[in-house]
Amino acid sequence: MDVTKALLLLKEKGYKHTGKREQMLQLFSDQKRYIAAKDVLEAMQGDYPGLSFDTIYRNLSTFVDLGILEMTELDGEKKFRFSCAIDGHHHHVICLSCGKTKHVHLCPMDDFSDTKDFKIVGHKFEVYGYCSECI
């Protein structure tokens, strides 16, 4: 996902193009890692002094619902990043310190053969640790 595609998707779904939304999306494009709502608020308060946490969360929720952002929870806090541009099935290794992610192309679901009495509709596999810059 990139800013242009995200803005087009928002328009297709009937959402207005606003400077706040575009700046939020650009922040995620620039960061290339998971970031918290408080980080978004801090980054944008200089340009939008009256910006509220509610506005940030409402937009983040919309972005997740539309598949623009991915969400995970690190240390009890929801964090967000742009949805991956990689086609196909993959998972992530996530740095607990800086939120940087790396793609992992293996899936533990490949070993789930004994689930005949259970209908699996989705899954998420994340590995947590520290990147070489944060060790």
Automatic annotation (TrEMBL):
Cofactor details (free text): Binds 1 zinc ion per subunit.
Positions bound to Fe cation: H89, H123
One function term, GO molecular function aspect: transcription cis-regulatory region binding
Signal peptide start-end: none
Keyword RNA-binding: no
Residues that span the membrane, as ranges: none
Known cofactor(s): Zn(2+); Mn(2+); Fe(2+)
GO cellular component: cytoplasm
Annotated binding of Zn(2+), by residue: C95, C98, C131, C134
Location in or out of the cell: Cytoplasm
Full protein name: Transcriptional repressor
